[in-house]
Amino acid sequence: MPTIGSLQVSPLCLGANVFGWTADRDASFAVLDAYVAAGGNVIDTADSYMWRVPGNSGGESETIIGEWLAARGTRDDVVIATKVGSLPTRPGLSAANVAAACADSLRRLGTDRIDLYWAHKDDPDAPQEETREAFDALRRAGSVREIGASNFSADRLRSALDLGTPYVAAQPHYNLVERAGFEEGLAPLLAERGIACLPYYALAKGFLTGKYRGGAVDSVRAQGASAYLDERGRRVLAVLDDVAAAHGVSVAAVALAWLAARPTVAAPIASARTPEQLADLLPALTLELTAEETDRLTAASA
């Protein structure tokens, strides 16, 4: 299994941003049950999921996960990752906010520790030394096992690491059709420092599932995915189709397997609203592409 610091994780991370939003409690439970039954063990959420939804205030995803952990008795079998810094009522990475937000997340999750605690985004207003000390205090108290940096530039992550902040993971935007920003920026630093990568938007807002190849744009998310439907995007989908057919799996699983095999990547993050959607992703837990298949996808997406 891939490792993130002291944590052993499955090669596919379940994104929980849809819980309490497009997946209600029952649907979320069903997705979590199916993911764990298939061998998945790492669940990524945030205190800010999903405060933007009318009627929500943030923490809905954490609350559902906490209720599922209590109902199933599975706390010791899974790696729980959550984030601090983006919830409007708990903004930033000041020491006071990190401590308060962690306490809130622990309460909602119904647990005594967070396995991987992410800085959700960089906070230029909080001195990096202060943030480091805040995370150190949580780790010493046993409230947090490991820490990660999400949405950090290479320069800011490097400066935090040089100050001794023990980030063991980074969470960037990276997938088959979004490569240059990560590969030319953050990737060399992660390789140099031995830091694991857990990419979000691993399926390019759904484009790499193939469902937008017809160009239908019925939502803001669909518009974002359809933006990839150019000559390069069609070329990538064509190779994904070939490789998926050879393995008898979905194109989404192949896209995730390509990503999981990239240097520094421990586990791509992907979400599902239903067990049926999840079923298309689960082969990525065990799927290994040949070198020729990987090279074809890399060339098509260059």
Question: In CATH terms, what is the architecture?
Answer: Alpha-Beta Barrel
- Percent helix: 40-55%
Order of helices and strands: EEEHEHEEEHEHEHEHEHHHEHH
Spatial ordering of strands, largest sheet: 11-10-9-8-5-4-3-12
CATH superfamily: NADP-dependent oxidoreductase domain
Strand content: 5-15%
Give the overall shape: globular
Structural class by SSE content: alpha/beta
Distance between the termini: 28 Å
Q: Please tell me the overall pLDDT.
A: 96
Care to describe what's here?
The protein is of the alpha/beta class and 302 residues long. It has one domain (3-206, 250-289): NADP-dependent oxidoreductase domain (TIM Barrel, Alpha-Beta Barrel). Helix content is 43%, strand content 14%. The protein has helices spanning 25-37, 60-72, 95-109, 128-141, 154-162, 180-193, 220-226, 231-247, 251-260, 275-281, 291-300, and strands spanning 3-4, 7-8, 13-15, 42-44, 79-84, 86-87, 90-91, 114-119, 144-150, 167-171, 196-197, 269-271. The protein has an 8-stranded parallel sheet, covered by helices on one side. Strands 1-2 form a two-stranded antiparallel sheet. A hairpin with a 2-residue loop joins β1 and β2. α2 (60-72) packs across α3 (95-109), α8 packs across α9 (251-260) and α8 packs antiparallel against α11. The model has no long low-confidence stretch (mean pLDDT 96).
